[in-house]
Amino acid sequence: MSDPIFPTDRPAMRFANGGEALPLRVVSPEGLDAALAELPTAQAAWARAQGFAAKPGQTCVLPDAAGGIAGALLGAGTAAQRRRGRFQLAAAAATLPEGAWALTGDLTPELTAETALGWLLEGYRYARYAANPAPKARLACPQGVDAHRLEIMAEAEALTRDLINTPANDMGPDELEATTRALAAHHGAALSVTTGEDLLAANLPLIHAVGRASPRTPRLLDLRWGNSGPRLTLVGKGVCFDTGGLDIKPASSMGLMKKDMGGAATVLGLAHMIMALGLKVQLRVLIPAVENAVAGNAFRPQDILPSRKGLSVEVNNTDAEGRLVLADALALGDEEAPDLMICMATLTGAARVALGPDLPPFYTDDGALAGALVDAARRHADPIWQLPLWAPYEPKIEPGIADLDNAPSGGMAGSITAALFLNRFVTEATRFAHFDIYGWQPAAAPGRPKGGAGQAARAIFGALPEVLGL
Q: Which residues contact 16 (CB under 8 A, 6 or more apart)?
């Protein structure tokens, strides 16, 4: 078994400790003239000569009388400009000189917290295969910000990004298990694993069917932590590579399929937050870890497969495999009637067509749960958008020859019909939500380099105290 990805040590994703920090004054365009008037004449002239206009994330290093660094200005932009992107002020981490910096100026608590978290996330670089130095400007933790909480959130995001960024030759079911096992050991959690033909004996036939064509043995990872409090079950899609199976993907669609285990990567990051910050819950994490490959024993279009729930499933596209492996995992988790069950998966292209790569949809029939998630998403700069479990579309997933169809024809409402499919396997959980995430940042942005990206984990974590009464 390969070396696990977790734990990792990234100093750039922690706040500066000790020593003096240089002042980093946040300035809005409307307050620019007043801020420059308070500076020594030479520094104000220097800022004007550099064209500093207080645009969001714009910096201007200020000299002292001896030619050293006295501090810097950081543009806040207008409120309208800030609405166009997250973590914009955190771009300063990549442009300021090495050293510790302390935020000053007229910042709201919300902007301070967002900038602090974004600064830590800006420190992430993926460097397993080639040098990729992280920024060397460090932020002193601002007053009123919980440094430990934000650092754990940054660690969790780094874990998720590392898992997604690692190519499939080094991140198969075996390697995903190794990282899950290391995470469990770090937090004193228990991990059980069901592999290969034992999946059939354990009544997990859909996980076995999807993974059986690969020489990399399919498995179900089952992590448990905590012995008191509400029951919380997280289910993450762990398709470590998806060829599409016999309905094979074209090259243009297969290029990013190393990220098809993004749901598993995200629930592991979320689990790290929960365990590291000691939430009083009984946590269970279920990850069906498979590779959807092409071979003589691959499952076929038109096959009708049994499921753990007892529902039969007609396979009308072997490339709709994620909902199959999730179905068995959800049914297993549902049998314990958890207080809350969350499903996370890079499930459909339809979600990206509807909302783009930056805004993952989620599905739940529980209005209070939805409200708590949306509020927490806003507070944690982790956007999500609710879409409906639209009952009039239920007939689309009922093929007649079997109980369910894994890939309804017609090409419409693909994310909704996938969510309706999964919802059929959850009948006992008190509350349930499914997230159809993308797991990838297509172009670099402040706090989010191009590559693997966690989505919705901070929103879920932030909602748990209200939802579970913690």
A: 100, 101, 138, 139, 140, 141
Cβ-in-10-Å burial (0-12, 13-18, 19+) of 78 comes to: middle
- The separation between CA 281 and the C-alpha centre of its own chain, rounded to angstroms, equals 21
Catalytic residue among 323, 396, 431, 448: 323
Q: How far is CA 330 from CA 299, 303, 456, in A?
A: 21, 21, 19
AA identity, residue 123: G
Same domain, 228 and 365: yes
What is the predicted pLDDT for the residue at 235?
99
Same domain, 328 and 449: yes
Q: Report in angstroms the alpha-carbon separations of 154 from 63, 92, 249, 344, 458.
A: 32, 17, 34, 19, 10
| Amino acid identity at 320 | A
The candidate with the shortest Cα–Cα distance to 436, out of 338, 331, 326, 336, is 326
Task: Give the separation between CA 302 and CA 406, rounded to whole angstroms.
Answer: 10
Which position among 82, 149, 249, 379 bears the catalytic label? Answer: 249
Task: Determine whether 352 is an active site residue.
Answer: no
Are both 293 and 160 inside the same structural domain?
Answer: yes
Range of the domain at 95: 11-145
Q: Residue 125: which CATH number? A: 3.40.220.10
Q: Of the candidates 145, 169, 197, which is a domain's last residue?
A: 145
**Mean pLDDT along residues 411-428:** 97
Q: How many residues does the chain have?
A: 470
**Judgement on whether residues 21 and 114 belong to the same structural domain of the protein:** yes
Through-space distance between the first and last CA atoms of the chain, rounded to whole angstroms: 37
Question: Rounded CA gap, 439 and 346, in Å?
Answer: 7
On the question of pLDDT at 292 being above 60, the answer is: yes
Q: Whole-model pTM above 0.85?
A: yes
Here the tokens at position 285 are 């994490």
Confidence band (pLDDT; 50, 70, 90) for 323? very high
> Is residue 280 flagged as an active site residue?
no
| Class of residue 406 by CB neighbours under 10 A (exposed 0-12, middle 13-18, buried 19+) | buried
- Looking at the structure, tell me whether residues 50 and 199 fall in a common domain: no
Is 419 found in the same domain as 315? yes
**CA neighbor of 180 nearest in space, from 260, 234, 126, 257:** 234
